[in-house]
């Protein structure tokens, strides 16, 4: 399929990326810098997410921001003085890296206004999205580009006229960190029918260990539901609560989940962020060999140090 045919066939063309969180888990690094700008190897986390949207055919990207997020919009702008200097030096490689983020997509920004929760942030996208289905990508979840997920979700949305969320089996002791799904099997082992959702249940209350990971393909009916929603867990307007409304059959269309079994990195957590840097570092074109060699050597030294303790 050519790019033009793909665009014509698309029912989903817009991506919304909520990025208004305060990033308190990364203080002091995030005191004056948005958490979405923390680099993973050599690119800020947000760039991976925008690249993922673009490779799923969504080149119209709306980023919902909050206070102190100026750096985010700068990252998707051109930087004439830097480009001029690199051009003068004839440094094509670096120039390409600078252009990479500014020519990636049509990136729009909208301020959330008040930090009332993820559901509220998504609701703010209505003026940009209008009466169309759209994708939501959360910046803390990084999906490895080698394991595409969003394309599959959009295909399920189209085929089933449904809201589609991404799910992943997590250890039971971690389920309290996620939205959690009540799900029924379908004929397809990668797809479940979602009949209920609960935001961050305790391990005891969790109906399953199927966690909502931060990818959603939503139908525009979500906006009316979000508008009517009372604050939920943590006093915030929860996207999970709006989806639960649909999952319980109170909306127009059903909710399906695509069960993801690929590589995902939680970059909102410090330890996982470091692991993501290592995992993507060893596979990096230019740096991989050096980092891999060093890790193997370091692992030996660490093992020796620990056994000497
Ligand atoms: C949000 C959602 C939650 C989801 C999670 C995925 O929570 O509210 O349902 O499972 O993202 O990362 P947050 O991690 O922003 O607290």
Net shape: globular
Helix share bin: 25-40%
**Largest sheet, strands/sense/barrel:** 9 strands, mixed
Q: Enumerate the strands of the largest sheet in spatial order, edge to edge or round the barrel.
A: 5-4-1-6-11-8-12-10-9
State the assembly state of the protein chains.
Answer: single chain
Name of the CATH class: Alpha Beta
For the secondary structure, the number of strands is: 13
CATH topology: Spore Coat Polysaccharide Biosynthesis Protein SpsA, Chain A
- How many structural domains? 1
Q: List the secondary-structure elements in sequence, H or E.
A: HEEEHEHHHEHHEEHEEEEHHEEHH
Q: Calculate the terminal CA-CA distance, rounded to whole Å.
A: 60 Å
The CATH architecture term is Alpha-Beta Complex
How large a portion of the residues is in β-strands, by DSSP E? 15-25%
Secondary-structure-derived class: alpha/beta
CATH-level-4 superfamily name: Spore Coat Polysaccharide Biosynthesis Protein SpsA, Chain A
The number of helical segments is 12
Average predicted confidence as pLDDT = 90
Unreliable segments of 5+ consecutive residues: none
Heterogens = 1-O-phosphono-alpha-D-glucopyranose
Overall radius of gyration: 20 Å
Describe the structure.
The protein has 12 helices and 13 strands. It has 309 residues and is an alpha/beta fold. It has a single domain, classed as Spore Coat Polysaccharide Biosynthesis Protein SpsA, Chain A (Alpha-Beta Complex). Strand 2 (39-40) and strand 3 form a beta hairpin. The N and C termini lie far apart (60 Å). The model has no long low-confidence stretch (mean pLDDT 90). The structure holds 1-O-phosphono-alpha-D-glucopyranose. Residues 118, 138, 140-141, 178-179, 199, 211-214, 239-240 line the site of 1-O-phosphono-alpha-D-glucopyranose (G1P).
